[in-house]
Amino acid sequence: MSDVPAAKSRGDLVYELQDMGEWEDVDADIAISDPPFGLEFDGKASNYNRDRSRVVDGYVEWDTDEYCDKATKLLDTLARNTTETGQAIVFSGMDNSHLLHQTVLDHDTWRLEGKLYWAYNFAPYCKKRPAHNIYELFWMVKGDEWSYSNECSFDHCQEGEANLSLLDIKRNYLKEMPKYPTRLPLEVVGVLLEHFSEPGDKVFDPLAGSGSVGIGAAGLGREAVLGDLNENAKEVFESTVDALEDDVFPEHNTNHTSLSEF
């Protein structure tokens, strides 16, 4: 069982190395998680535009034949560690989104309330088909009460029509730093948190990787509890926190952009 208060943390930003199934009693208001793709991926392939020498080792993929079981375990973990009115957002790429969709529909606790889509500017080079650059985001609730605001302070709502289900957000690049094979842009996290949570809420991600969900949460005045199995992922998280200590959301007008307290 996880002892969250005793975990090594930066203020209200907690990161533990443990299996997702070990989490208990987090009592989060919202869970946001980007699980493994369920295919052979380590983020170092030559068709990705990145310096592979900076990509850390230890990324644990889910085998395709175990994807549904792993997804069910993830949904169980999120359900067990969120409040009665808690909600969850889980990312999925093209290859196994149909499996995640069915797993959500079959789950005893979660109800699929809607889907969002993130269009990004990064995809492997393809010769025989379009390069897929869309993530599906599965939004789940437990009942008829949840937190939602129909406007955020990012370009998603401030430029063009607000409150759309498509998030057209470019991946940002952190140069000269160790990299994790997968990393959510902080702006994606920020948009989701401003729409689906409130300042002071607790955010949970048991598959945190480089910790973008927690860093974005701390930058917007939320608590965060994170976990992963990869020691290298936690090192990337620590280096990212240090690099963004005073500027989590550059050029974004918010009063909660500093990590200097953590």
Summarize the SSE layout with pairings:
Blueprint: E1 9-10, E2 13-17, E3 28-33, H1 67-80, E4 82-92, H2 97-106, E5 111-119, E6 134-141, H3 155-158, E7 166-168, H4 186-196, E8 202-205, H5 212-219, E9 223-228, H6 231-243
Parallel strand pairs: 2-9, 3-4, 3-8, 5-7, 8-9
Antiparallel strand pairs: 1-2, 4-6, 5-6
Strand count, sense and barrel status of the largest sheet are: 9 strands, mixed
- Which class of secondary structure composition applies to the elements? alpha/beta
Strand order across the largest sheet: 1-2-9-8-3-4-6-5-7
Distance N to C terminus: 25 Å
Keywords:
Rossmann fold; disordered C terminus; DNA methylase; SAM-dependent_MTases_sf; alpha/beta; 21% strand; DNA_methylase_N6_adenine_CS; 262 residues; transferase; globular; 9-stranded mixed sheet; S-adenosyl-L-methionine; disordered N terminus
Task: Tell me what the structure shows.
This protein is α/β, with parallel strands linked by helices. The chain has one domain (4-243): Vaccinia Virus protein VP39 (Rossmann fold, 3-Layer(aba) Sandwich). The protein has 6 helices and 9 strands. It has helices at residues 67-80, 97-106, 155-158, 186-196, 212-219, 231-243, and strands at residues 9-10, 13-17, 28-33, 82-92, 111-119, 134-141, 166-168, 202-205, 223-228. Strands 1-2-9-8-3-4-6-5-7 form a 9-stranded mixed beta sheet, sandwiched between helices.
